[in-house]
């Protein structure tokens, strides 16, 4: 018998035997089979609790992490848009990590822990945040069809939901932030009465055309990008949010109109709000962080005070690690002042290949933001981070990836 015919016959015989051998060794069962108890005990053993320390350093929230995700969680829907993976059913992140229980405990261990009560059934707790006065904690609860905002009274451990809105929790940063007076929270909510998501077209309207005329556009390889007009419509639908202020009783005050707000931050004094808003045109070659943005200062009522950044699509950056956009970037509040803005600006066109003695300038701009910004320091490397103390001392750290060099400066911002 030729070798090929012999192998074919032997293979057929083995295949024919598999069902019988399998049925004799493994009885038919419904659903998934559980491993032995010894294996289950190891896999489902409680994880090390996480700690969230209160602002006065006298209390802490002890958080119990979930172990492995369930099959139901892994089967939840997922959309991949502009570099983000989200759950379209609840406008939350796709397959997030979370906590399943919480208790409040004194740091010195002098009193019994206070269990948090009133939690929803099967809680999925994310983004635990203490109020500045330490009287309350806030967290997001991930539910199958929405993400809701909850607060916990630290003294009693009583938890309750805040407001009747749902969060838009699709961005990396938390969808809520405490006000400096601890009396309310600034929230990015899902829009009201938005209707159903846009349906996919039955046929394409035409070819996808992308142009790069008269300029070089080097690009890294990114995943989960927008691919067509329908993806653009889905991005607008799922990533649009409504900014609002909610007090601890659930009363809400809406600020501005719904838009694609990717980030917001209250000034330390509470009178101003810094908002980042993504604009069109979108791109199929870069993620959301490179899309056109407007960074704006709003007053307490949501009125525009000043636009700080109006950046076009950043699809032509060099691919070097120290390449940055031109114009103001990394705009944020000075932590030790009521309403002072800080940002960096590249002095080399954002291209680390350019030979220069100064890469970045760091600027300060104080409320009411109608003056020219003042330069705080010139840096020969890229701004890495700042640490604020007071008018007499702050730390500015610069870093360059190319040669792994770093330098720290002490400055007097006042």
Largest sheet: 4 strands, antiparallel
Beta-strand content bin: 35-45%
**Unreliable segments (pLDDT under 50, ≥5 consecutive)?**
6-22
Structural class: mainly beta
- The count of strands amounts to 26
Morphology? globular
Percent helix range: 10-25%
* Rg, alpha carbons: 27 Å
- The run of helices and strands is HHEEHEEEEEEEEEEEHEEEEEEEEEEEEE
- Count of individual helical segments: 4
- Strand neighbour order, sheet with most strands: 1-2-6-7
- Mean pLDDT value: 91
Report the span from N to C terminus: 94 Å
Give the SSE map.
Blueprint: H1 3-25, H2 37-43, E1 50-53, E2 59-65, H3 71-74, E3 79-81, E4 84-87, E5 92-93, E6 99-106, E7 114-115, E8 125-130, E9 136-142, E10 147-153, E11 159-161, E12 176-178, E13 184-189, H4 229-239, E14 241-247, E15 252-259, E16 261-266, E17 272-278, E18 293-299, E19 304-311, E20 328-333, E21 340-346, E22 360-366, E23 374-379, E24 382-388, E25 394-400, E26 405-411
